[in-house]
């Protein structure tokens, strides 16, 4: 009979442990598992790494951006996926719903660090232009939004209203200024 340390975890419930980043060192694997090689399989657009039933934190999910679901930056599961791919393991498919780069049309991949805090837009990087293309596209979108809907709070009698651009960060404004200058030769900061 097998006794598991953790209450049986199914594929969907590991998420709950995401908030507690836990380094997954060798020490966490029981002695009798020191020669154990974690099994790697493709699950959706990610890799499922199984450290075996002897491991406290058994299942890890590594995405194509080399991030592990456990939150540890140097999780062993990330290495396991690298070895697995080097050994010729099947690659996970590219996530659908990540549209091609709007700047150059190359593939993009998720980058959670650039998820919009307020806009809930998904962060990404371009495989060719990297983060630059993400920022270019973002500036482009902000500019378009501004042109279509410049008012956050429209003016009313006796109230001047609040324009969206008054609430933007200087980085965003600077990016837009640069774009306007490149496209029209007009320097808004001059
Ligand atoms: Zn992990
Ligand atoms: Zn691009």
In short:
Residues 1-24 are annotated as: Disordered. This protein is α+β, with helices and mostly antiparallel strands and 190 residues long.
Blueprint (SSEs and pairs):
Layout: E1 39-43, E2 46-50, E3 59-62, H1 76-86, E4 108-110, E5 124-126, H2 130-148, E6 151-153, E7 162-163, H3 170-184
Antiparallel strand pairs: 1-2, 2-3, 4-5, 6-7
One zinc ion binds at residues 101, 103-104, 106, 126, 128-129, 133.
Question: How would you explain this protein's 3D organization?
Answer:
With 190 residues, the chain is an alpha+beta fold. The chain folds into two domains: 76 residues, no CATH class; 77 residues, no CATH class. 24% of the residues lie in helices and 13% in strands. The chain contains three helices and seven strands. The strands form three sheets. It has a three-stranded antiparallel sheet with strand order 1-2-3, covered by helices on one side. Helix 2 packs across helix 3. It starts with 38 loop residues before the first strand and ends in a 6-residue tail after the last helix. About 8% of the residues have low confidence. The structure holds zinc ion (ZN) (2 copies). One zinc ion binds next to loops.
